[in-house]
Amino acid sequence: MNLNDTSEQVLALVPPELHKYLTVHNKNITVNSTEKANPKNVSDIRRAIHRYNEAQTIYNEDIFGPVQNDTIIIAIQVHTRLTYLRHLIVSLAQARDIDKTLLVFSHDYYDEEINSLVRSIDFTKVMQIFYPFSIQTHPNEFPGVDPNDCPRDVRLEQAIKLKCNNAHHPDLHGHYREAKYTQTKHHWWWKANRIFNQLQCTAGHTGMVVFLEEDHYVAEDFIHMLHLLRSTADRSCPHCEMLCLGTYLKTYQYHTNGDKRKQLSLSYIQQVRAANEERRRKMQDTQWNYQVYPYLYSSNQKVEITPWHSSMHNMGMVFNRTVWNNIMELQEQFCAYDDYNWDYSLLHLSQNRPKRDKFKVILCKGPRVFHIGECGIHHKKSNCNASTVISKVQKLLQNAKSYLYPTRVSATISAGGAKHNKKLTKGNGGWGDIRDQELCTNMTKVDRQMRKYIHFA
C-alpha cells in the first residue's frame, strides 16, 4: 500500500466531516522519507521561513479568541511524514476541548502541501513556526552537510590528514557528525526556546505545553486526562515537574534470530543505549500488539508517580515555564552532552541537577498518546504501512470508549526499575562536533548571534 493511501478500515472509523484532512492530492505529494531531495529554490524558502517566523500569525484567532496565559499549547514537531501528520490532525480534531488550545506546528522542512494541510485546520487556533537552521535550507553547508565534513567512520588520524571539518573532535565512539541525526535535537531545542522565550503570544504564558510529534495519535479525552493529571499532581506530588500522556508499555514484540523474543517498548528499542550504535540503526521487525491495553482503561484508572526517564516518558510529555526555566539553568549541559537525542540529553541534565532530585513525572497507565510511526529516522522497514498501526489504535480506543473521561484517578508511587535509576555514564554519541554544540548554545541567545546561520538571498 502506498503510504499516502488510507485503508477503508481506517476511514470507516473517521467521522465523514474529517475525511478532508486525509485527502491526498496527486501533485507535489510529500513522500514518507527522512531523506528528501533538496528543493530547487532554497533562497525562496529561506525568505518564506523568515517571513512566517517574523509574522507569528495565529490562524483562527478571530473565531476561537486570543491565546491566554493559561491556554494549553500543543507543540508538534513536524518533518516530512505527511501520512502520519494527517492522522494526528484527525485525532486532535476529535478531542474534547481542543477548541480551547493553541496548536503550534514546528517544521524543519518547508513543503506547500504540508503547509496547506496545517492551514486548513478549522477546529482551533493554529500557528506555524519554521526551524531556520535545517538541512533543507543549508544543503551544502553547516548545519546541513558541508562537502568538507569528515566522513562518519573515518579514523581520527586520517581525518586530521584530510583536514576535514571538526577533524579533532569526533564523538565518544570515534564517529563524525551526521546532519540528519543532529537536526532532530537542534529542532527540539529551538522549538522549545521559540515557544517559551520568543513568541509574542506566549510572553506571559504560565500554562502547560504538550510536546507531540507528527507520528503521534491522541485519544479524544487526552485534554481531560491532562487536567486530571495536573490536579492529581497538585494534591499528591507538588514537586512533579513533568506530566506524561503516552506510556511505553511492554506491548511490542521484538524478534531476533527467529524464535527468540524480547518484550520491549518501541521507543525503548529506538533509543536503547547499546554499545554498538549500529544496532540502533538497523532494527528488526516489530509487531504491534494492542490487546493487552484495555485492562488499563477501567472505572478506577491509575496514574503513576516516578522518576522521569527519557525512553519511557518522552511521548506526550508536558511541562510549563517554571520547568523550562529549570532546564535553562543547565542549558550548557544539554548542549555539550555527547548524545544526538534530545530526550537523553534532558535525562543527563535531570540526573545532574545540583542540589535537586531528578525530574519526577506523573503519567497515565492507560495511554492517551500513541506512537503510530512505522517509518522514520530509526526505522528502515521495507513494508512500512501506516494504516496497519493506525487501525489498531482506533480499535483500541473504540474498545476503551466507555472508560474514557474518568472522573477520578488513583495515584501510585514507584521508584522506577533498575534502568530508570541507572545513571548515564556517557551518551549515545553523534554530538561531538563543536559546531553543533555552539549552535545549540546560541539558540538561547539573542538573534544577533544567530544571523551567521541564516541567509535570505
From TrEMBL:
Membrane topology note: Single-pass type II membrane protein
InterPro entries linked to this entry: GlcNAc_II, Nucleotide-diphossugar_trans
Residues the record lists as binding substrate: 77-81, 108, 183-187
Superkingdom of the organism of origin: Eukaryota
Main localization (coarse): Golgi
A Pfam family recorded for this sequence: MGAT2
SS bond list: 150-164, 237-240, 335-440, 375-384
Residues spanning the membrane: none
Required cofactor names: Mn(2+)
Signal peptide positions (record): none
Reaction equations catalysed: an N(4)-{beta-D-GlcNAc-(1->2)-alpha-D-Man-(1->3)-[alpha-D-Man-(1->6)]-beta-D-Man-(1->4)-beta-D-GlcNAc-(1->4)-beta-D-GlcNAc}-L-asparaginyl-[protein] + UDP-N-acetyl-alpha-D-glucosamine = N(4)-{beta-D-GlcNAc-(1->2)-alpha-D-Man-(1->3)-[beta-D-GlcNAc-(1->2)-alpha-D-Man-(1->6)]-beta-D-Man-(1->4)-beta-D-GlcNAc-(1->4)-beta-D-GlcNAc}-L-asparaginyl-[protein] + UDP + H(+)
Gene Ontology MF terms in the entry: alpha-1,6-mannosylglycoprotein 2-beta-N-acetylglucosaminyltransferase activity; metal ion binding
Binding of Mn(2+), residues: 215, 371
Recorded GO CC terms: Golgi membrane; Golgi stack
EC number(s) on file: 2.4.1.143
Gene Ontology terms describing biological process: oligosaccharide biosynthetic process; protein N-linked glycosylation
Top EC class for this record: transferase
Family of this protein: Belongs to the glycosyltransferase 16 (GT16) protein family.
Record protein name field: Alpha-1,6-mannosyl-glycoprotein 2-beta-N-acetylglucosaminyltransferase
